[in-house]
Design a protein that fits this description.
binds zinc ion; two-stranded antiparallel ribbon; about 200 residues; globular; mainly alpha; 6 helices
Length: about 200
């Protein structure tokens, strides 16, 4: 769904839980806020009761979160995960899709035993949990200097202090450490500039 409908200026970052709140046209709530039946009502018919969240990897750029098919990481982080993964002859390096099918974690039922299918799903969940742990640590690192200023900051202020960029995505990917980032990332940076100018 197009993110243009959302008023990005109305969102704030909760410096406690790391999720986005407020927003427009609907009021989004972070993990710290109560979820009343009246509030739940406005999300009926939507898989996920939020519109927007911070990227799971760089924790700087945003992702739309409305459906179970939404990505957990921003476009730039997904690009880095894809490019680095392919460099090693794999699919994308990180499971950045909300649904396991998006991450290629599909075992053909007719060729695999039930044990194999179960093991694959367990591995997939574990990789997802590790990324969530990472996001919490990375968020705390970025949020720490802002916390004395109050419980939230406007999303625009968050991104002014922690600007999303290819460099930030590569840096986050590298520190997450799932596989070494190849040395020739200058090539990747160049490719990304072209990628962004065509995508935006
Ligand atoms: Zn919160
Ligand atoms: Zn990102």
């Amino acid at each position: 769904m197009p993110s243009e409908e959302l008023n990005l200026a109305a969102f704030a970052v909760c410096l406690t839980c790391g999720h986005l709140r407020d927003g427009a046209p609907r009021e989004q709530r972070c993990r710290c806020q109560p979820r009343t039946p009246e509030w739940e009502q406005q999300w009926q018919g939507q898989d996920i009761s939020s519109d927007l969240d911070l990227c799971l990897l760089c924790v700087r750029d945003t992702v739309t979160t409305r459906t179970r098919w939404s990505w957990l990481a921003c476009e730039t982080c997904r690009h880095v995960s894809q490019v680095v993964g392919e460099r090693y002859g794999h699919r994308a390096a990180l499971p950045l899709g909300r649904h396991s099918i998006m991450n290629g974690d599909v075992v053909q039922p007719h060729t695999a035993t039930a044990t194999k299918v179960a093991a694959s799903l367990v591995a997939s969940v574990r990789r997802g949990n590790e990324l969530r742990d990472w996001q919490q640590v990375e968020f705390d690192r970025l949020a720490e200097p802002l916390r004395p200023g109050g419980p939230t900051v406007p999303l625009a202020e968050w991104q002014r202090r922690c600007p999303p960029s290819l460099g930030a995505s590569v840096d986050a990917f590298d520190r997450y450490g799932v596989m070494p980032v190849p040395n020739d990332l200058s090539t990747l940076r160049q490719a990304q500039t072209e990628f962004l100018s065509t995508a935006r």
